[in-house]
Write a structure and sequence with these properties.
By secondary structure, the chain is α+β, with helices and mostly antiparallel strands. It has helices at about 65-75, 95-105; strands at about 40-45, 55, 80-85, 85-90, 110. The radius of gyration is 19 Å and the shape is elongated.
């Protein structure tokens, strides 16, 4: 069996010459301006072996812009973290600092 598996949703063959399988990938939306972003900042310890993580949730936009914002926040905090699935994770308790920086940059943060 070939290692190149295409995900066609169970479709093996079609007699329709104009057939194209539907894509299950979500479309990327354009990044909203900072004033229209409703970001929520909270502390989280779930499934992290008791470690505290600052979680920024609610970002709407492209993955590149999310990663850029995450990198700026991680640099300001001087710590590690990640940015994926519309969330920014920052290792440690930096809730007040992150909210202050986001508001200074024009974001609506709670």
């Amino acid at each position: 069996m070939s290692k190149k598996k295409s995900n066609l949703g169970g479709i093996v063959y079609s007699t329709d010459p104009d057939f194209s399988p539907e894509s299950n990938e979500p479309e990327e939306t354009d990044t909203l301006p900072p004033a229209q972003q409703q970001l929520r900042v909270k502390l989280d310890t779930k499934q992290r072996a008791g470690k505290v993580v600052t979680l920024v949730d609610g970002f709407i936009g492209k993955v590149e812009d999310l990663e850029k914002l995450g990198k700026e926040l991680k640099t300001k905090c001087g710590t590690g973290g990640s940015a994926k699935d519309g969330q920014i994770l920052i290792q440690g308790d930096y809730k007040e600092k992150v909210v202050k920086w986001l508001q200074d940059w024009g974001y609506k943060a709670k």
